[in-house]
Design a protein that fits this description.
180 residues, alpha/beta, seven-stranded parallel sheet, 7 strands
Length: 180
C-alpha cells in the first residue's frame, strides 16, 4: 500500500511532532507499505523519509524542480521523481496514493491536503483522507468542515471519506475499516 503523507519542511517547535512522525514512519516500514511524500530532505519531511528507509521500507519522493534548484531534494530515496512544478507534484502524489495522511504542517501541507479533500467530496477519490489531529492540530479544520455542512455548503455524505485521527492506532483503524 502506498501511504501518501503530507507534512512540513520544518520540525515545528514541539518535539511531540517529530516523535509521532518517527512512529508513523516505523509503522509504514514494518508493515511493508511504501511512503509517498514531497521529496524534501528538510524538517519533518526528512524525518519521515529517513526513518522509513532506516527501518527497511521504501520511499518515493515527488519533488518540484523549484525545490531541486534550491538544493532541498532528498538524494537517498528508493525513488525520486522530479516534476516541473507544485501542481504536477500534487497530481502525482494523489495518483500514487492508496491512503492520504495530513500530518501537522504549514501552508504547503494545507494546500496539498485541500486538493485531496476536494477530490474525495467530488467522488474522484475513494481512498481515505486522514487528518492526523495530533494535539488537536486540526480541530479548527474539523470545525470548518462541520460548519460547511451546518451552513448548507456541503453534506456529511460528500465528506464521507474524510477522517480525523489523534494517534496512530486510530489511523490504523481507519485504514483497516477502508480495506474491509
Amino acid at each position: 500500500m502506498n501511504v501518501t503523507v503530507y507534512l512540513g519542511a520544518h520540525e515545528g517547535n514541539n518535539p511531540v511532532y517529530k516523535q509521532a512522525v518517527v512512529e508513523l514512519a516505523i509503522w509504514i516500514a514494518e508493515n511493508g507499505h511504501r511512503l509517498v511524500y514531497g521529496g524534501s530532505d528538510e524538517g519533518l519531511m526528512a524525518v519521515v523519509a529517513d526513518t522509513v528507509l532506516e527501518h527497511g521500507g521504501e520511499v518515493t519522493g515527488i519533488e518540484a524542480q523549484m525545490f531541486v534548484d534550491k538544493g532541498v531534494a532528498h538524494k537517498n530515496l528508493t525513488q525520486l521523481t522530479i516534476v516541473p512544478n507544485i501542481t504536477e507534484r500534487r497530481t502525482r502524489m494523489i495518483e500514487l496514493g492508496d491512503v492520504f495522511i495530513a500530518f501537522p504542517g504549514g501552508t504547503g501541507t494545507l494546500e496539498e491536503i485541500s486538493e485531496v479533500v476536494s477530490k474525495v467530496c467530488l467522488d474522484q477519490l475513494t481512498q481515505p483522507c486522514i487528518f492526523y489531529n495530533l494535539n488537536g492540530f486540526y480541530d479548527d479544520m474539523k470545525a470548518l468542515l462541520q460548519r460547511m455542512i451546518d451552513d448548507g455548503f456541503s453534506t456529511g455524505e460528500r465528506q464521507h471519506g474524510i477522517y480525523f485521527a489523534s494517534n496512530l492506532a486510530e489511523i490504523e483503524h481507519i485504514i483497516a475499516m477502508h480495506k474491509a
